[in-house]
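Forwarding the complex inputs:
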Amino acid sequence: MADKVTNILLAGVGGQGILLASEVLSEVMMLAGYDVKKNEIHGMSQRGGSVVSHVRFGKEVFSPIIPEGEADVLFGFELLETYRYLPLLAGHGSVIANRLRLMPPSVSIGVQEYPANLEERIKAQVDKSYIVDGLVLALQAGDARTINTVLLGALSTMFNVDEKLWSEALEKMVPPKTLEQNLKAFELGKANCG
Amino acid sequence: MKREILSGNEAIARGAYEAGVRVACAYPGTPSTEILENTVQYASIDSSWAPNEKVALEVGIGSCFGGARSLVAMKHVGVNVAADPLFTLAYTGVKGGLVLAVADDPELHSSQNEQDSRHYARAAKVPMFEPSDSQEALEFTRLGFEVSEKFDKPIFVRTTTRISHSKSIVTPGEPVTGLPTPALEKNPPKFVMLPGNARKRHYVVEEQLQALEEWACTQSFNRVEERSSKVGVITAGIAYQYTREVLPDASVLKLGMVYPLPKQLIRDFAAKYETLYVIEELEPFIEEQVQAMGIKVIGKERLSICGELTPGRVSKALLDQEAPVHYAPEIELPPRPPNMCPGCPHRGVFYALNRLKAFVTGDIGCYTLGFMPPLSAMDTCVCMGASVGNATGLNKVIEGEDKQKIVGVIGDSTFLHTGINGLMDMVYNNSTATLIILDNRITAMTGRQENPSSGFTLSGEPSPVVDLEQLCRSVGVKHVRVADPWDLDGTRGIIKEEMERKETSVVITRGPCVLIKRDLGQHKTPLVIDPDKCTGCKACLRIGCPAIEWQADEGKAHVNELLCVGCGICEQLCKFEAFSTISDKGGK
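Prediction (whole assembly, two chains):
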């Protein structure tokens, strides 16, 4: 992973805290000494639309968006949104997906159905795919709102980065009152990615 | 050395701070909004929201004439509004440096068109820097103030969405010191643009541009990167990053200033390469000027004028290489467009307009989403404030029953931006159209910024509130009514009566945005649906609330209590009394 740029695509639904998760990831990789770029589209994010965030790190990063078909990790916060962004994944890429289904508008109003068996589909198509029980683990950590930290813990198993940097970044970016729960959530995610 | 990860917008704010800026002014607009949200973090900068971009620029011009360095920020379409002062500011020049940060939106991520602001630089004769990452956004903004004063010109710093909202590593610098204290200066030949003075200033404008172009040929912001390949590329901004990604061996003339172009530098560079590309987003702005110099380049014959560039699109256009697709969904997926929030005060208004079969001239804001099914109650959307004039114009030509169906819909912030002028016209010229002002007490779409009717300034200080009813009455509207948008029957009744009225009328639907932080305490208990009472009639689905989910297997509706804020609109549509609040049932 030394000189080559690593590409992480975060995908989910507006309001799930994807931007904060990508901030933490970027901070960790900057602290680890990498060049880092990240990008996402603001504006519509709080209105329940599909949201992606691109994070790239390595010796020198040029484009802030991941070249098509070159995401090393597709990091999904919701199953449908994970599945939607499969075309951006590299051939050797991995998927880490949260076990969560959120209804898009056409499903809510009964015009379309939420696709069935998405977990199975993802696993059948991508060899290296991991489904994380984000909410269950977050509740174990003591607060449903630590779900993103659980997912970051799972993601952290993909990289060879000093663990202290993750706790340092979390300390800087989560509310002090919730730090202990977040650190616990991170550990739970890390231990349960598989 | 301290390193930080900053967005392009944060870096522009930091650059302004380091340049000693005293005044920053803007109207919010994606993707430029965060510039002012960050300048306000610096105590040395007086940061404020103006009602529109023209006022923002005029405020900036005033403080610049007083000798203070001033930053004005807006999105691309904001420059259309600010164009009037801009073109003449180019003649007066500056006293304190003035930088206009403009953020374009190729691909229309959150805009109504994808116009290319570089044409404004040329048309208004205002030099333009274009950064390619956050470090350059900081440096070019800071440098922009020096260049502004050195050449007596306002300066554009142009970004695009992928620069404004991308974060990259920045090493900040120290703020400058020793700038002159602002003072009044009478200098009519420079500041009073009557024909006699302006005629003379036009010569100055042309001389300065020539001098600036020659100077820019020698500056490091325009640089040549020589590499092994026989291909040469002229590029700027985000396109530079895609060039490096896709053509790593190409030599590059990387332009930091895209207007005026450094012609001598371009000639020298072009002479060395057999194949020359111009890689730029949107218009062939650089390409056509280079062609006009008699140099053959390849550009828009391969790269699209429409949409943004990506590494894959550049690769496909120039190398004929399709981006690889290793995995793809094997079934059709339901789309996930943005939607009005649960509890949004706009939802009930659009439901009423849908039921009344109104023809709705719309405007720019969250409420533009009212065009989507199932509300489907917006029929036009052109630009900020256009709903009012559009309604007046339609009302002039449509006769019979349809004449009274014409309703303009505009948000409070958009009304104060450029809607009030249209309302004066509506009254003055005896239109019988109806205008609805969706007063949610905030500029919601861009992320909840304060405005003259919200009661607070950008820095969070309380301020006087524009009284919308009095404002409408003062321009001559005789019929101004206020409706509670969460009361479906009440709102529909008022809108119906005013649509039927053969005079100009205004309905103000008043309810705060559910995302305003200071009002979040007003959220009510979520509702629940009693499955025994729900008949599966789907009436509650007609408002398209994200908190109500159709359960196809049970044939019943269900409320997602994590999303529901208890606004109660759905409850008013249910004929079977299936809705209740959780507390009514004595807990879950």
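Chain A is about 40% helix and 20% strand.
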